Amino acid sequence: MANELLSYAGWTFLPGLVSGWIQTVYYGITIRAGDPKPQPGSPRYLKHRRIIQSTVILAYLLYTIYEADYWIRQNADFYQILGLPLDADEKRIKSRFRRLAALYHPDKLLDTSDPALLSAAESHFVLLKDAQDTLTDPSRRFAYERYGPDILNWQHCITIRDYLAAGTLQVQAPLYGGALTFLGLLSFTSYLQAGRFWRYLFSMALLVLECHTISRPYTAPLLTKVVNPVLGKVTRHPPLLPFQLLVLARKATFTVFIAISQLSGLFPTSTPPPVAGAAVRSPEEMQQLQRLEQLAQATDAEAGRLLQMDMSPFVGDAEGTKELRGKVREWLVTNTIRADPEVRDAMGKVLGRRRAGAPAGARG
């Protein structure tokens, strides 16, 4: 539980904090001294922030899964403790235990005066004994491979049916009951609505994987045909047991939930609410606006075509094109000046003074 809380706390502030640092360093490297940097809130700044923070979120997602796998490898399973393959039979398990017991039995210690050393030796021997007792009992071996070392504390479990019933009550019911309750509460609130479909989809996929992995009398094909062969060929990772696969799947699902919530804030897909006081247009008005927009686009295209036809005599004539541009520029400037109200008012005053100073005959 403590690891889950630390992981959630990291998801809360790390992506935004690291993204801000990376964006600052990125601008310091890519933008030359003296050039303006994109201001917070500008389209360019927001675009860079989305790309950087998405990368950070995906990288942190992979890290959290690696962290869970590292914890699994640090807590070796019974097969690794005894140094046996996953398909070892009962005879081989007992033979291996006798050999290790001869080496690690506390009575074999040369120095028994150190309490810490003696306690460590006794703990290791008890672990070897638990591993041997579990793997030589078919029911306990079945339960261990699917639920892990927690089954050592389950009381009144003898048969496979007993272990499945205990696992359902102690593992699946609290886990998925709490998850579905949490998702149901989110559905009735306005919090974390983005990605709701994907959360339900991943939850159902995890439930199907867990039910298939636990209830089958054989190891899940996902492990025997995909995961473990790939790990054996590509890495030096030891083969996974079913309960270890489920631990990784639960961790991945939990972190994917948080990653979806983080990404949905960067790429909002919902339509923004209407502005207060803004007119709400009917479907008929929207169709009319669309037709008007299409008419405007067609008119613009036709005007461009007519302009191109008018300019066709000057194609290839650089001198004529230059002269035409000069005439058009002069015409635009002249008409702009003449149309200006202040210019027209000033010209009227000048003409009025000229008429006032002209001889009487000239005025008439």
Automatic annotation (TrEMBL):
CDD domains, per the entry: DnaJ
Entry-linked PROSITE patterns: DNAJ_2
Keywords linked to the UniProt accession: Chaperone, Membrane, Transmembrane, Transmembrane helix
Residue intervals passing through the bilayer: 6-29, 50-66, 173-194
GO molecular function ontology, one term from the record: misfolded protein binding
InterPro entries: DnaJ_domain (IPR001623), Hsp70_co-chaperone_J-domain (IPR051948), J_dom_sf (IPR036869)
A cellular-component GO term for this protein: endoplasmic reticulum
Classification via PANTHER family: DNAJ HOMOLOG SUBFAMILY B MEMBER 9
Protein name in UniProt: J domain-containing protein
